[in-house]
Specification:
It is a single chain. By secondary structure, the protein is mainly alpha-helical. It is 76% helix and 2% strand. The chain contains 24 helices and two strands. The chain has helices spanning 33-46, 48-62, 66-71, 77-105, 107-126, 131-159, 165-190, 197-204, 208-216, 224-229, 233-244, 252-271, 278-281, 283-301, 304-317, 323-351, 353-382, 385-409, 413-417, 420-451, 456-474, 487-491, 499-511, 515-526; strands spanning 10-12, 15-19. It has a two-stranded antiparallel sheet. Strand 1 and strand 2 form a beta hairpin. Helix 2 packs parallel to helix 15 (304-317). The protein starts with 9 loop residues before the first strand and ends with a helix.
Length: 529
């Protein structure tokens, strides 16, 4: 076989008709021209999450800007929660119809529509003259973000080469930290601007990734799975042939992928009408729904929202009140998180999803939040400044363990758990739960920090323990197989198997005198299979 072609080897521990996707390529991706071209375009899609990261870090950075604080009359507690919480309200509203829109118009157009909405919201936010105007802009931005991160994970997961699906889908959410990093350091720079433009200027920069999306997303190849679902089979095959096989008609991967996609979609259409009840109709879908719903809530409730939106409040609580110092810590934290997140995306297939999730939670708890809780208590009760400063180190440690895995899981692990027939609905459900959790915590966090103080961290410690239990007992491993083959984990014997390999495996078994294969072949001839 040509070394430029994909090397398909049948048989994994999940069945004889599955393949190990890590064995498909014999060289690094950058040595294949067609993969360089594909991933060059996918950078445009990956950038959408930078907008979300910029937004989250922006709200942290603005709280450190004197002119922003003064303009909005130094908001604290519930009022500060309004500034952050309304973004989630916009997202929650959008998910009521996004499940339909993303299947109706496709992944690319949904992303571009979201970019337009974000630009409108950013413009209003940047020139806001009141709390109501600023909060309304936050809601509009949240709605646009929901458009983008409903469609982007689907497009990345469905168009990526099988060998790189895990890394790319995980990398999508990792770009959150890239946007956060830019916002944090730009905000530090605007501290020197002695006017309201110290915050208005950095706000305007938030529309930059959206301008890229509007300009270039149309040139990104559409999801082959969406195209097949819409009856555009030839166009879907052309995309897979060009971008996964370099245009080589003799490459076996294109027929393998097309057969899996068409067979799986046909099977899923036969099983139901695609309504919302499909999420609970079968044991496999109930399991998928549980994984997505629990992961959506737990990923936000284990402390990341507290650090991401209220770091300035946390730092003030341990005696770090200088705006420049707060901004530098925020900038360094986003840089650290970005580096650890990139590392996590790189090794996610090597170590596996479950192992990395469990290790991340263990590190967050033992090395991060428990000592953070203890040191915060010591500072509050005895005024121990060394304990207060130690909290900063534990914030970095807890954030690093989170960044290695959990930030990318929401666009990597959960999306590949979804079968095509329920994918749009589960992603919308995921966004609803993520944004609902963020919105609730954005109202709760500042109030709890103001009224309860360090004792609030005990609740986060308990949630991390709960998350560990949930992952250990209910989350399956999904690494090293194709997107369609993940269904064999959730649906078991009811999953669609690739008939191309089924026939090949049976015939090879017959030629070797395999009694089991002979029996299967005889059953097929008699019509019993």
């Amino acid at each position: 076989m040509d070394k430029q072609q994909n090397q398909i080897i049948a048989g994994t521990d999940r069945g004889a008709t599955t393949i190990n996707v890590q064995q498909l390529l014999t060289k690094p991706w950058y040595q294949y021209q067609h993969l360089r071209r594909l991933y060059g375009w996918l950078v445009v899609v990956l950038m959408v999450q930078a907008t979300n990261g910029f937004d989250g870090s922006l709200m942290n950075g603005l709280q450190a800007l004197t002119y922003w604080q003064k303009y909005f009359n130094y908001p604290t507690g519930a009022q500060l929660g309004i500034f952050n919480g309304t973004q989630g309200l916009g997202s929650v509203f959008a998910v009521t119809f996004l499940w339909w829109l993303v299947e109706k118009v496709g992944r690319r157009i949904t992303i571009m529509m979201g970019a337009v909405i974000i630009i409108i919201g950013v413009f209003i936010q940047s020139f806001a003259t009141s709390l109501a105007m600023f909060a309304s802009a936050r809601a509009i931005i949240g709605m646009g973000l929901s458009f983008e991160y409903t469609a982007a994970p689907m497009l990345i997961t469905e168009i990526a080469h099988p060998a790189h699906r895990a890394q790319l889908s995980t990398l999508l959410n990792t770009l959150y930290y890239f946007g956060a990093f830019i916002a944090a350091w730009v905000t530090l720079g605007t501290l020197t601007i002695q006017s309201d433009w110290s915050w208005r200027s950095v706000s305007l920069l938030q529309m930059f990734p959206s301008l890229i999306s509007i300009t270039l997303t149309w040139f990104v190849p559409e999801s082959p799975r969406w195209l097949v679902a819409k009856g555009k089979v030839a166009k879907a095959r052309k995309i897979l042939l060009d971008y996964h096989c370099g245009g080589d008609e003799s490459d076996p991967l294109v027929d393998f992928e097309m057969h899996e996609i068409e067979s799986t979609l046909a099977f899923e259409r036969e099983q139901g009408n695609g309504g919302w009840t499909a999420l609970f109709r079968t044991k496999g879908n109930r399991w998928r729904t549980w994984v997505v719903a629990s992961c959506s809530i737990l990923s936000q409730a284990t402390g990341t929202t507290l650090i991401g939106y209220y770091l300035v409040v946390v730092l003030t609580g341990i005696g770090v009140t200088n705006p420049r110092t707060q901004s530098i810590i925020n900038g360094c934290l986003t840089l650290s998180n970005m580096l650890f997140a990139f590392w996590g995306a790189y090794v996610i297939d090597k170590f596996g999803r479950r192992r990395m999730m469990l290790t991340s939670l263990t590190g967050q708890l033992i090395c991060g939040f428990i000592p953070w809780t203890i040191c915060s208590a010591l500072y509050t009760q005895s005024g121990n400044h060394s304990a207060g400063h130690a909290v900063i180190a534990f914030i970095f440690i807890a954030s690093a363990f989170y960044a290695t895995t959990w930030n990318g899981i929401l666009t990597g692990y959960t999306v590949e758990c979804m079968s095509y027939d329920v994918r749009s609905k589960l992603i919308v459900t995921q966004n609803f739960l993520v944004q609902g959790t963020i919105t609730g915590l954005n109202y709760l966090n500042p109030v709890a920090l103001k009224n309860v103080g360090w004792k609030y961290y005990i609740a986060i410690d308990a949630i991390i323990v709960l998350a560990f239990i949930v992952v250990y007992f209910t989350y399956p491993e999904t690494s090293k197989i194709t997107l369609e083959e993940v269904s064999t984990i959730f649906d078991g014997k009811h999953a669609v198997k690739n008939a191309l390999f089924e026939e090949q495996v049976v015939m090879e078994g017959i030629s070797k005198g395999d009694d089991k294969a002979v029996m299967v072949e005889r059953r097929e001839v008699s019509g019993d299979v």
